Fold this sequence. Notes:
Layout: E1 9-13, H1 44-60, E2 66-70, H2 78-93, E3 99-103, H3 110-118, E4 121-126, H4 131-137, H5 147-158, H6 163-166, E5 167-173, H7 180-189, E6 195-198, H8 218-231, H9 240-249, E7 266-269, E8 275-276, H10 302-306, H11 309-317, H12 323-326, H13 331-334, H14 356-377
Parallel strand pairs: 1-2, 1-7, 2-3, 3-4, 4-5, 5-6
Antiparallel strand pairs: 7-8
Helix pairs in contact: 1-2, 2-3, 8-14
The structure holds iron/sulfur cluster (SF4).
Amino acid sequence: MFHNPQLDTVLIKLASRCNINCSYCYVYNMGDSNWTTMEKQMTEPTMLAIAKSLTELADFQDQRFSIVLHGGEPLLIGAKKLDFFLSLLRNSLGVDYPISIQTNGILISSQILDICSKNKTSIAVSIDGYREINDKFRIGHNNKGTFDQVINGINILKSHPDHEFLNAGLLAVIDPSSDPEKIYSFFKELEAPSVDFLYKDGNHSILPLGKSAIDSTEYGEWMTKLLKVYLNDKNPLPIRILDDMLKVLLGGTVSKEGMGITDYGIVIIDTNGIIMKNDTLKSSFDGADKFKKPINIKDGKLLDFIGSKEFNEYREMQRPSSEKCLRCPILNICGGGMILHRWKDGSEFNNTSVYCADQLHLVENMKQLISKFYLINA
Ligand code: SF4
């Protein structure tokens, strides 16, 4: 047993299927087949076992952890089961542990929102930008764009009496061919409280969509343009990834996966109760998110597991190991990126991020922009 392991996030996959079929999705369209044999929705015995284990975890560790309900599409479990599970979690943990749902927004209804409001659970919606950009990849099983349905869900969310608590903002996957200024203005028009941006999944062996070569900087250039728009806005829409990077650049610390050099503890509980590694690893190779000796949450051994050698090795995987990263002047900001972005057939995860050139480009520009900002405002 390793000494006092701490979790930051418990990600729970309530449903193994999705009501849409984003073409870039790591779960269904990047080589992993685990979902095909998985039960479609989490059962009540699994939910009861999770509540019990998380109560033990809360008693055991010093720091609070966040709970993120994910999928597939988590709202596919329906209002009744969602209420059952959220009430169970709140009865077990009280109100101090943040619970959020990451959804594509299509199944948001006033009934779902009432349940979330009652159980102090916020909702973040995935949307990639204006119609033309969102509908490029975020499509339904009928191959049609999902933009109108998502906007409808966001409007229902915005009109709920408890929207200020419920609305946890937007999550967008970057399309470097889009106009960052237009994307930013569009999200401001949606009156989102904040937005976070993700780099697309991919690695050294399968380049992310929109990246032409390992040393190309399409994503870094896109982010730099976004940063300029952001810094010039007197009434900015908070952008989490940029705020976190700026905070570290100015001497602070951030405990977030794929950023900085602090350890970040996350477990994924799959729909059938099996404990998994971060599910984005599925994009590296089939089964990359599985532990060698996995446990099921119903075994009641979560604490033993997060204290085990195998879990400790998984946590250590997050630490950058490539020589270039270890000598990198911006290691404290970049942290070597997300584990999935480091994969390369042959050298496995012992590499820089596939976004290394993008990160160097962005942080260099960030430094220059911040120095100018200080000079102007000195
Ligand atoms: S910028 Fe590149 S070398 Fe530096 S830490 Fe990030 S991935 Fe590693």
